[in-house]
Amino acid sequence: MSEITEAAERTPRPISIPEDVVRASGRRRDEPQPVPVMVHVPVQVAYTDVQLVDGEALAWTTGGLVLIRYVPEGSRSPVYVWVAGNLVHRK
Fold first, then answer.
1. Which of 8, 40, 47, 52 is positioned for an S-S bond with 87, CB 3.0–4.6 A?
2. 3-state SS, one letter per residue, for 2-47
3. Structure confidence by residue, pLDDT tens digits, 64-77
4. What is the pTM of this model?
5. Which phi and psi (to 5°) does residue 15 adopt?
6. 3-state SS class at 70
7. How far apart (Å, rounded) are the C-alpha atoms in residues 36 and 56?
C-alpha cells in the first residue's frame, strides 16, 4: 500500500445524519446568517471518533437536527454535515 493511500485512509471523514432521517426530523429553518458554533462531529478513520471543531450552523429542523459547515484540519474545502442539536454549542 502506498504512503498516499495509507494517509488517505487515516484522514478523518465526517459522518452526516442521512438525508431521509433529516427530512423525517421536521421542518427545516435556514438561518439568515451563519451562526458561529463549536460542534462535536462524528468522524470515521479506521474507526468512528468524534472531533470538536469550529463551524457554522446553517439550518435547523424542528426535530433538533442542525446543518453544520466547517473546514476539516488539513483541508481547504468546507464540509457540510447534519448532526444532533445537542452536539452544537454557540460561541
1. 40
2. CHHHHHHHHCCEECCCCHHHHHHCCCEEEEEEEEEEEEEEEEECCC
3. 999 999 999 888 99
4. 0.70
5. -115, 115
6. strand
7. 5
